[in-house]
Design goal:
The protein is an all-alpha fold. The chain has one domain: MetI-like fold (Orthogonal Bundle), CATH 1.10.3720. The chain has helices at residues 3-30, 36-40, 47-57, 63-76, 89-124, 129-142, 146-160, 172-175, 182-219, 223-230, 235-247, 249-261, 267-272, 278-287, 291-319. Helix 5 (89-124) runs antiparallel to helix 12 (249-261) and helix 5 packs parallel to helix 15 (291-319). The protein is globular, with a radius of gyration of 24 Å. The protein starts with a helix and ends in a 6-residue tail after the last helix.
Length: 325
């Protein structure tokens, strides 16, 4: 199968899946038991006010008509107004999205780089002390409960030592200072990122290390590795140029999907550190029945995950043509 045809089929599959998710979200929020106004907005509204609000939101129309309006608004990029903030949902998402991308993309890239590098080293020293140390360390950090680790780091480095801020993303005194330049503001954000970034790194790097180690051990048994040894190539060349590129395929999938799922902001991390991102807003919108914001957030996450899956599939098909069949 040609690569173009393979990509075309994947696009069709993802389009179908996305519209299934789009429909499921529509039905999930509208067919839930109970009165939509008292469930989503304010239970203290009078019957007249509730009826007027239902009419304004279009919830008095037949479900099929609501669905058509919903699809039309989606293609227009309109997701309504947040009940809590009173402003367009799109503005809220675009305001929070860069914060989530900054924190989680940085953590995943750093975790993947360290995990892949150390995974290669661990596999090359299989059964030795270094391999045992790296493997046990990865297992311990990867299985830690994230909120517990985050609170421990806050208690040690923020409360006891006072090295880093307890929460937030910026310092008001810096950002309200008219003389503060871009570099100072960037350093202030980096300063606030240390603890959440450290938490995410400790939790995630072990998964990449263990996955790379396992994949490398399988690759090192292949015939072409034995041929490379027979040619007299150095261990470094065999490990980095022959074994690692082929062993990295499963890790590429993991990194790609991790980048996709990072769009939800890791609700626990952003909530613990009061990081103003999509994950924190998702938790807030669900807990406060902010229906338009919650629906748009879920839809954004689904869209990014589907695109990431397609990109990973295409990358796999490009690296290994056998996957196209």
């Amino acid at each position: 199968m040609e690569l173009k045809r393979f990509i075309g089929l994947r696009l069709i599959q993802i389009t179908v899946i996305f519209f299934i998710i789009l429909t499921a979200l529509f039905l999930l929020f509208r067919l839930a038991p109970g009165d939509p106004i008292s469930r989503m907005v304010d239970p203290s509204l009078s019957p007249e006010e509730a009826e007027h609000l239902i009419e304004q939101l279009g919830l008095d129309r037949p479900i099929w008509e609501q669905y058509l309006i919903y699809i039309k608004n989606f293609f227009k990029g309109e997701f309504g107004y947040s009940f809590h903030y009173g402003e367009p949902v799109v503005n809220i998402i675009w305001d929070r999205l860069p914060n989530t991308i900054l924190l989680f993309t940085t953590s995943i890239i750093l975790s993947a780089f360290v995990g892949i590098s150390w995974g290669k080293i661990a596999s090359w020293h299989k059964g030795k002390k270094l391999d045992l140390f790296l493997t046990i360390g990865s297992l311990v950090t990867h299985t830690l409960f994230l909120p517990w680790l985050a609170l421990i780091l806050i208690w040690i480095f923020s409360y006891k030592l006072g090295w880093f801020p307890i929460n937030g993303m910026i310092s008001e005194e810096v950002w309200l200072d008219p003389e503060a330049g871009i570099i100072r503001k960037a350093l202030d954000i980096a300063y606030h990122m240390v603890l959440p970034l450290g938490t995410l790194f400790l939790i995630h790097f072990g998964a990449y290390l263990l996955l790379m180690r396992s994949s490398m051990l399988d690759t090192l048994k292949e015939d072409y590795i034995l041929t490379a040894r027979a040619k007299g190539l150095s261990d470094k060349v065999i490990r980095n140029r022959h074994a690692a590129p082929n062993a990295a395929l499963p890790v590429i999938t993991s990194v790609g999907l991790s980048l996709a799922f990072s769009i939800n902001g890791g609700a626990l991390t952003e909530t613990v550190f009061t990081w103003p991102g999509i994950g924190r807003e998702l938790v807030f919108s669900v807990s406060h029945n902010d229906y338009p914001l919650a629906q748009a957030s879920f839809l954004l996450i689904a869209l990014v995950v589907l695109i990431a899956n397609m990109v990973v599939d295409i990358l796999y098909a490009y690296l290994d043509p056998r996957i196209r069949y």
